[in-house]
Write a structure and sequence with these properties.
With 217 residues, this protein is of the alpha/beta class. It has five helices and ten strands, in the order E-H-E-E-H-E-H-E-E-E-H-E-E-H-E. It has one domain (3-216): 3-Layer(aba) Sandwich (Rossmann fold). The two termini are 28 Å apart.
Length: 217
């Protein structure tokens, strides 16, 4: 059993990560900005605490005593690049200070490559409203890649489509590198539940280190 701290535990991906970790017998601390807004998280032994993933001292405080961290946090009220870069630097600073050696962060499929050096977000006509959000994730990845750190981080990116929040957990997924995994046109949507399986698998048995990987059905 491990102690896992989940940043952004109130979102769809974060909730699934909390549930998957609990189902495997881990102790979980769920970090949100306002615990009073998420009373449903405080069950099955989950500790719900207030924290700010963009502040290294806050990260260090809530992560102390844990073995691994998951970052599923998102902010839509801040510019995407500002938020994700600040979060990357805070996690890089705060987690080692807290003695946490493993970070699995949730990325976005639009940073995966369709050809060497060409990302999904680089495609001509890529929607402008999605571009800023995607570039924020890309900047976060750059901050992690460029860091001089002992933190064993990993970014997991699901397919660049809407994920299914209702589909049950199957426990099945494929893993690729930084390249977009091919999928059949009629393939079902990848689910948040199976994304959480991939996240917890990488915490329990780390196979990828300081890199980006894509996952898909």
């Amino acid at each position: 059993m491990s102690r896992i701290v989940v940043f952004g535990a109130g979102g769809r991906a974060g909730r699934r990560a909390v549930a998957e970790a609990i189902s495997r017998g881990h102790q979980v601390t769920a970090v949100v900005r306002d615990p009073a807004s998420y009373p449903e998280l405080a069950r099955d032994g989950v500790a719900v605490v207030a924290g700010d993933v963009t502040q290294a001292d806050s990260v260090a405080s809530v992560a102390a005593g844990h073995d691994a961290a998951v970052n599923a946090a998102a902010r839509l009220d801040l510019p995407s690049e500002e938020f994700y870069v600040a979060a990357a630097h805070a996690l890089l600073g705060g987690l080692p200070q807290a003695g946490v050696g493993r970070l699995v962060a949730l990325g976005i499929g639009t940073v995966l490559e369709t050809a060497p050096g060409v990302r999904v977000l680089d495609a001509p006509g890529f929607p402008a409203d999605a571009l800023a959000f995607s570039l924020g994730h890309a900047a976060e990845l750059d901050a992690l890649r460029n860091a001089d750190t002992d933190l064993d981080w990993l970014v997991i990116a699901p397919p660049p489509t809407m994920l299914d929040d209702e589909a049950p957990r199957t426990g099945q997924y494929r893993v690729g590198g930084a390249q977009l995994l091919p999928t059949e046109p009629d393939a079902p949507q990848f689910s948040y539940a199976d994304l959480a399986v991939a996240v917890l698998d990488e915490i329990e048995t780390p196979k990828h280190h300081r890199t980006l990987i894509g996952v898909a059905l």
